[in-house]
Fold:
Amino acid sequence: EAGVAQSPRYKIIEKRQSVAFWCNPISGHATLYWYQQILGQGPKLLIQFQNNGVVDDSQLPKDRFSAERLKGVDSTLKIQPAKLEDSAVYLCASSYINSGNTIYFGEGSWLTVV
Amino acid sequence: DQQVKQNSPSLSVQEGRISILNCDYTNSMFDYFLWYKKYPAEGPTFLISISSIKDKNEDGRFTVFLNKSAKHLSLHIVPSQPGDSAVYFCAAVYSGAGSYQLTFGKGTKLSVIP
Structure:
């Protein structure tokens, strides 16, 4: 079974530029999550989708971050404009609906804002 | 307000001995608790979980214990192996309102010394 795929793996941008990350969840997983992990901290949920609807985006900085999952499969997370404090690993995860005890993560997209 | 706390940033254990990683939580509404293992430059890998209605779950060398009255859980690794050296994250799942919200601790870096 293929895992959660993410790209790009690494990205370096200047502040005020924009960046987009892509995620393809495990086949059949209806729930998709984007997490932000800053060095030395645990992952923090940014947004959660169930199929193509948003379940929770309460911690998403909506003035600069946006995410979509138009067809209920792939998802894109965008940051525009980026700030220095956005430097982090962006982790995508997925799970079956009603399967909160097993959530699988991708390898992450590492962002450095300079 | 940290709902999931891992108070030990690091732990060193001799190969073959027991590793005990601890986690405390504050929200009595959590339904599941999960442990993830993370190697550098990789995403978190699901290790083991426990439902809030159980007090123990075992999978090979890994056992998770839950003490609900103390709001405390621990992960035991016996015997510890050098390949277990990684950052371990404790996470808690709340499934209120039909969505599964995963909250992470800051992680404990385990070093198993050969």
In short: The CA atoms of residues 11 and 110 of chain B lie 5 Å apart.
